[in-house]
């Protein structure tokens, strides 16, 4: 059996996906980027291959993407994360239906991507890296509130009434604002809900720049936060689809492209 890998080297995490000769996902792994992107990407790929039983000689083609894609010298090809994200979203949502809009929230930035019916990217927009609407900001919020980042969704649904307003667009100032709200005896669940809605409002503005179309897909680590999903759906007024493994969409897209590229190069076009 032949296998193909996609490696997404982001600023905070390395995501790897492996597909087989039919383009089916057979394994994936998420690990911290750390300070040595290349070394950790190598180690993570080796560990994933061992876990799923892929011998080195069976890995035919590798595509790298993300912030550190050019650092992974062994890759046969590297592509932008925008392209990989679009390919991965279509692959992950095959049974769900057509995807026209992608919301991606990463560790350091957020993106909105618009696609046509053929899956081609027609427009995209990214936020400012300081904006209080990223995965890193959610980590900071959880730390200040002394709860786990995986508990944010639970606290969101405990909140009642109108969500608190978090106005700062810079993560540093927003953090100060949250500390001030704690000092004024606001409950944790009120603050969490307010944070989620403040992020949702910024995401909706970003999506409007590329056009909001039915078939909305949400990926990135924060998509695991069902409270944030709820806030974005409410702000959009539309349902959004979250895949089973939202963190690996971009690496899955790179893996699918690796499979397709190998097919074309070997004369076995898929």
TrEMBL record:
Its cofactor is [4Fe-4S] cluster. Residues 6-258 form the ATPase BadF/BadG/BcrA/BcrD type domain. The keyword Calcium does not apply. Keywords: Iron, Iron-sulfur, Metal-binding. The keyword Iron applies. Pfam families: BcrAD_BadFG. This is Acyl-CoA dehydratase activase. The lineage of its organism: Bacteria, Pseudomonadati, Campylobacterota, Epsilonproteobacteria, Campylobacterales.
């Amino acid at each position: 059996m032949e296998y193909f890998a996609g490696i997404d080297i982001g600023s905070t995490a390395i995501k790897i996906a492996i597909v087989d000769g039919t383009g089916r996902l057979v394994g994936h792994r998420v690990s911290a980027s750390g300070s040595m992107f290349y070394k950790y990407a190598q180690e993570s790929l080796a560990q994933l291959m061992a876990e799923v039983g892929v011998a080195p000689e069976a890995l035919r083609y590798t595509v790298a993407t993300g912030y550190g894609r050019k650092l992974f010298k062994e890759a046969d090809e590297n592509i932008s994360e925008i392209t990989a994200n679009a390919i991965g979203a279509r692959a992950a949502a095959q049974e769900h239906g057509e995807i026209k809009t992608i919301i991606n929230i990463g560790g350091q930035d957020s993106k909105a991507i618009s696609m046509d019916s053929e899956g081609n990217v027609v427009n995209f927009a990214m936020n400012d890296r300081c904006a209080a609407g990223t995965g890193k900001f959610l980590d900071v919020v959880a730390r200040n509130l002394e709860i786990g980042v995986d508990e944010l969704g639970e606290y969101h649904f405990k909140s009642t009434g109108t969500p608190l307003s978090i106005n700062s667009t810079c993560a540093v100032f927003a953090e100060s604002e949250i500390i001030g709200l704690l000092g004024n005896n606001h409950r944790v669940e009120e603050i969490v809900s307010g944070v989620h809605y403040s992020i949702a409002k910024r995401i909706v503005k970003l999506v409007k720049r590329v056009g909001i179309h039915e078939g909305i897909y949400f990926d990135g680590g924060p998509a695991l936060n069902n409270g944030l999903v709820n806030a974005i759906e409410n702000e959009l007024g539309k349902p959004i689809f979250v895949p089973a493994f939202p963190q690996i969409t971009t690496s899955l897209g790179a893996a699918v492209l690796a499979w397709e590229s190998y097919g074309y190069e070997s004369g076995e076009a898929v």
